[in-house]
Amino acid sequence: MMENSVESQRLRRPRSRTACGFPVSTIIVTIFGLLLVFGIVQSYLTLQIDPQGCKTPSMLPTYIKLGGFDTEHTRFASKYNLYLYRERGVDDYSEEDIGLKGVPVLFLPGNAGSYRQGRSLASEASLYFHNVLQHDQDRVKVGTRSLDFFTADFNEDMAAFHGQTILDQAEYINDALSYILSLYHDPNRARRDTDLPDPVSVILIGHSMGGIVARTVLTMANYQANSVNSIITMSTPHARPPVSFDSDLMSTYKQINSYWREAYSERWANNNPLWHVTLISIAGGGGDTIVPSDYTSLSSLVPDTHGFTVFTSTIPNVWTGVDHLSIAWCDSFRKAVVRALFDVIDVRRATQTKQRAERMSIFRKWFLTGIEPNADKLLPSKEPTTLLTLEENANAMLKQGERLVLRGLGHHEGPKAHLIPAPPRGGVPGKKFTLLTDQRVEPSGSGKLEILFCSDPPSRAGQSATLLSLNLDLSGGNAASPRLVCKSSYEDVIYIPASNKNSKAAFDDTQPFSYFQYSLEDLTEYQFVAVVDKHEKATPGFLIAEFSDSSDSVIPTRVSLGRLLSAGLTILLPADRPMVTDIKVPALQSSLLAYKLKLDRQGCKPNSELFAPIVRQYISDPYESKFFVNVKAIDVNLHGVAPYMPPHIRDNAAGSGVSFELWSDRSCSAPLQISLQVDVLGSLGRLAMRYRTVFAAFPLVIVAMVLRKQFRVYDQTGVFINFSESLELCIRSSLPLTFLGFSLLATTLATSKSVVTQGVQSSWQSNATETPIDYGKNDLLLGSQDAFFWFLVPLFGIISVGACVVVHYAATTIVYLLGLLRSTVAARQGYIKHENGKAAPLLWSLSTRHRIVNAVILLFLVATVVPYQFAYVVACIVQLITCVQASSHARESRSGNHANLSNFAHSILILMLWILPINIPVLIVWGHNLAVHWFTPFSSHHNVLSIMPFILLVETLTTGVMIPRVTSNFKHITSGLFFFLAVYAAIYGVTYAYLLHHIANFVVTWLVVLYFFGNGLCIPSMDRITRLPEFADTDFSNGHIKKLP
Strand 624-629 and strand 614-619: pairing? Predict the structure, then answer.
């Protein structure tokens, strides 16, 4: 009792009655939090930046608006439009005849995107067909034609903020698909060969949210079956929405993803409506600051047989990261996409594309490096084409296990063949053949350098080596010379970036290296590898070829993440190492950490190496490879295991970590040391994109706990302490315990996830339903699958304290400045002083009838015209004005009751300000629709109950009435509700941020109840609120109104 009395007296002592105050603990935590924010921002902007090497293409665009696609075809004709792209000077078209004679392709722009963003791809398609393909009769005969690029104009709609907008766009696209296909049936519009079938499907290309719209198209009721079978998306957040501020957006994503997952989980192809569909997701990498590239993953949606995710840095001859916008126009990238499209089309089929398996093989060829374990190799399936007759000089054949090294080519008169014998079968498993050269390898018979895989001529009856199409005689006409039957490996060539002492980046404008890699299992039918040098004169260059054992070329590491953090990783490669070394680091799999990798080549002279070291950093799911040339030191960051991502559909779910494939020349006969260290400062920047929504949710934890403390003190002492004092008390008591509990919960969740993942077999692999995958298991708290990152909870807590303090003092400053403005205006208007020396209110003079009318009008507008988010913004403005009024009265009267009201109004304003960002996106969408004259209301955003409590609380505060104290056990309800808000904001706030508004709305409902019911929740006279005297003539004590003497 004595301690409670002392505490009560301490809280009742005179204190600052405004919202100001500078407690020491709060300032220390705030400074620390702001330093963390500065470190994160600085790291994000300056450290671990992926280089970008996109060139801007040139084009001559013409957009033909398809006016015939009107309200007879779609109900969105007044909002959206459809265009056909034509390249001036290349495409043959006119106003009467738009020249449809190719394969239809439809481009879908993203959030606030323009239909003009499709011009880069469309221009390259027109130019490539006009300049190259139409002259290649072999391609024309197999069904290659031009591409008719259509592009949708969504009027720069905000699809990333609003789920209904996605559904509207998808419905419109389905209408557009039907209309586009109908154009090819019109002989007055189409110039297609009458012998070819009319198209029944359209290829979709979506940028950003346009990719989500493309996937939504196939789930809509107005979807025409089989009208889409190929989708390519660029920087599209497939796995989860970019923000979670709209309930419609979350439910739309859930419905779309569930549809795709359920379709591919069907046991039989006939029951899968998406069996014929291929989906390719292309990500820009770390340069994309709009959509986290982790979200582009298809691993939880589509099996490898129907789609995959790849990064632009992986794509051959692109080898660069791109940002969110440049992925739509990057010159090297658009060429790769267009060439892939021309390879998959086949106008001889009604679907206009090849079969699904063949399409997937083509997409892998164009978008993957070719080094992947599942890369298609054409050599085993080819027939021999070349008869190689060797010279009698036996020195042309290397010894078993010897490597071939050519320093320069063309040093012999006439062609020269170098034979590398294949290792004997049944030896050490894991052997592979690798060859690297800076020369371009041409098709057999036409190039200066050929790589042939040879075997002895057939000896069985009926087989003859003389029937081969090419005869390469190096013997000088000697009939007794040995002969070999060979296959060319030209189709399996892999291009990797060139690297020399002057190289700077993988995307440098230089001829790439040619690389071949085969496992020994692929070469079982061959006895020799023949490298044929047909240069007629000495040519600078190099070639290195060898067979290597996996025991030498593959180096697995078993270092833990903790060991990496404390001591790093150091590997010493011997001087007689293989040309290609693959270092696997399973512990390095989190996208939250960045690293530094260094290569030390001591003892190597500058000109002694044939090429400078090349490093390929790669993970297999998604397909992300980064090439580094002339390597000395590189930044290592990745898109591996990321927070809040749904689990993979396969058992080999991204658990192999990062690998480093190293090409090095051992000509200098010196060891090579590789060191890997965690980049702590660089890792801070990784938090910005992965946890940006946390910085909207976690501050609500602080605000809720502060309000909880304020009410507990107020109910106990009658003093509603200000925000700063309450925050100081929380920092010294409840907040550390709260975040300690959250940290333990984060550790428990991560541990349970890892245990479940190890014990559950993928239902996708077995086509079974006994153990369904929980795709929402990573939605809670940090969303991390690794207990190592528990420390992020208190770190975000410290940052949130700093953010709340900044917002608190910013609001205080604004309120103070507006108060000065109010006083100045009042003085100029002849401010009347009362006898008691107090000023009459300016804004609280509204009558009860006026307040009721204002509230009813606003609620009516919410129910009919405006979304409740608009009313929320109005409520925030009114609350700000109330804070100005209450603060002015508190300063002028120096009354404890006025100070209580000012502190309470200020804390409610802080709460509302942190809820405000959740409501702004939908409000932006609504405003944009008004700007484009689209007045169809949002059915889900006219719920009056979602805003009524806020309006009632704000209107009640304008009366100048302080919320009554609760001395009964009902005071625990107030405390519990604020604590529930804090817990929900921490655990679910990132994934379901939109619910924070509704939970806060429920808490505010309780505060309104307290206003209308006195102590002990007895119904008092409603005159206490509905009929008030002038504020200046009243005093408030314990929630009751008393006349001043």
Answer: antiparallel
Looking at the 3D structure of the chain, how many domains does it have? 4
Question: What is the residue whose two structure tokens read 């939250």?
Answer: 592
Of these residues, 123, 201, 208, 893, which one is catalytic? Answer: 208
Instruction: Find the angle CA(120)-CA(121)-CA(124) to the nearest 5 degrees.
Output: 85
Residue 958 has, within 13 A of its CA and on its CB side, a CA count of: 25
356 and 408 housed in the same domain: no
The answer for residues whose C-beta is within 8 angstroms of residue 122's C-beta and 6 or more apart is: 61, 85, 87, 105, 107, 147, 149, 151
Reported as type and span, the H/E element at residue 910 is helix 896-931
DSSP 3-state assignment of 144? coil
Structural domain including 619 reads: 553-647+654-681
Distance of CA 838 to the CA centre of its chain: 58
Identify whether 673 is part of a domain: yes
> Among this protein's residues, is 847 annotated catalytic?
no
- Residue 748 in any domain: the answer is yes
Last residue of a domain, one of 529, 549, 569: 549
* Phi, psi at 435, each rounded to 5°: -145, 135
795 vs 743: CA distance, rounded Å:
10
State the average pLDDT for the chain. Answer: 86
Residue 1002 in domain: yes
- Which residues, other chains included, contact 709 with Cβ-Cβ below 8 Å and sequence gap of 6+? 721, 726, 729, 730, 734
Q: Is pLDDT at 1015 greater than 70 in this prediction?
A: no
Q: Is 931 helix (H, G, I), strand (E, B) or coil?
A: helix
- The residue written with tokens 């705030």 in the block is 30
Of 507, 523, 549, the last residue of a domain is 549
Tokens linked to 6? 């002392």
DSSP 8-state class, residue 221? T
Q: What share of the chain is helix, strand, coil (3-state, %, to 5)?
A: 40, 15, 40
Q: Is 417 in the same domain as 335?
A: no
Q: What is the DSSP letter of 271?
A: G
pLDDT over 70, % of the chain: 88
CATH number for 581 = 2.60.120
Secondary structure class of 279 (helix, strand, coil)? strand
Q: Which residues face 543 on adjacent strands?
A: 406, 437
Q: Is the pLDDT score of 833 beyond 50?
A: no
- Considering the domain architecture, whether residues 527 and 578 belong to the same structural domain is answered as no
Do 518 and 624 share a domain, yes or no?
no
- Give the global pTM: 0.90
Contacts of 255 (CB under 8 A, 6+ apart): 219
Residues across the chain: 1045
Where residue 56 falls (left for φ over 0; alpha for ψ -120 to 50; beta otherwise) is beta
Residues 709, 855 within the same domain: yes
Residues 122 and 251 in one domain: yes
Q: CA 355, CA 357: separation in Å to the nearest integer?
A: 6
Q: What are phi and psi of 14, to 5 degrees?
A: -55, 140
Return d(Cα 136, Cα 143) in angstroms, integer: 11
Q: For residue 1032, is pLDDT > 70?
A: no
One-letter amino acid at 68 equals G
CB 324 within 8 Å of CB 235 = yes
Domain membership of residue 608 (yes or no) is yes
- Give residue 763's pLDDT band: very low, low, confident or very high (50, 70, 90): very low
Task: State whether 523 and 618 are in the same domain.
Answer: no
> Which residue in the block uniquely carries the two structure tokens 């200098």?
668
**Which SS3 state, helix, strand or coil, does residue 648 take?**
coil
Q: What's the rounded mean pLDDT across residues 745-751?
A: 86
Long-range contacts of 24-30 (CB under 8 A, 24+ apart): 25/728, 25/731, 25/732, 26/724, 26/727, 26/728, 26/731, 26/801, 26/805, 29/731, 29/798, 29/801, 29/802, 30/801, 30/802, 30/805, 30/806
Q: In what order do the strands lie in the sheet with 449-455?
A: 416-421, 528-533, 449-455, 483-488, 386-389, 470-473
377 phi and psi, to 5 degrees? -110, 125
Beta-ladder partners of 573: 672
Q: How many CA atoms lie within 13 A of 385 on its CB side?
A: 14
> Is the domain of 320 the same as that of 402?
no
Q: Which residue has the higher pLDDT, 593 or 396?
A: 593
Task: List the one residue out of 492, 505, 502 whose CA is nearest residue 611.
Answer: 502
